[in-house]
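Lab manual, section 2.4: Encoding a predicted structure.

Procedure: take the sequence of the chain (216 residues), apply the prediction step described in section 2.3, and record the output as structure tokens. A sample record is shown.
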Amino acid sequence: MSENTLDEQVDRPLVQVSVFFDYICPFCYIGSVRLLRLNERFDLRVNWMPIEIHPDTPVEGQSLDALPYDTAQRQAMNHALAALAAEEGLTLPAQRRMANSHDALRLAEAAKRFGREAFYRLHHALFQAYFTEGRNLGDLEILRTVASTSGLPQSLPDEARNDPEITRHLAHYKALASQYTVSGVPTYAFGDQQLNGVQPLATLIATADRMAKGEG
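Recorded output:
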């Protein structure tokens, strides 16, 4: 299996899942990598549904101190994050600032038009740019670079900003999140079963197996 795609293999059972996510959520990054591992067992078809978790963040970004967590909560979260990242072989440098993900999410939605592999190249590149390289996903120039290096048109971030179809899609995802009472990301919907937060691989496998057997 390619690192950045979900390749098709006919000998794996087909499983569909919808995922609410945001590129500035480290647990979504870990969850995305974990889904690649799940795809080794199943022909996984993911409906990625981007929603902004901090839409009021200024374009230039802001300090993580602006988030409503006290020191103990922040330390506990960082400890859990480090442990989860280590399970996936990821090293996540300490974040100092939070980006505005609005344009990055629009770019990802636009990338879907170029096919599954193109989307996944961009999808993982955006996570890596933010969490590994510390780049500001609210910066259009950075998004242009990520798009270009992912094999997509450099102009795609600009085109996505004013695309009414993308606006409708994102509004639809937001409405679905409200309908499903999504309180955080990542949130997975395997048929009628909803899983909140990053999940152990064993839980994902068991849930996908039930779906494949028509028990979901």
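Check your result against the sample. The chain has one domain: 14-212.
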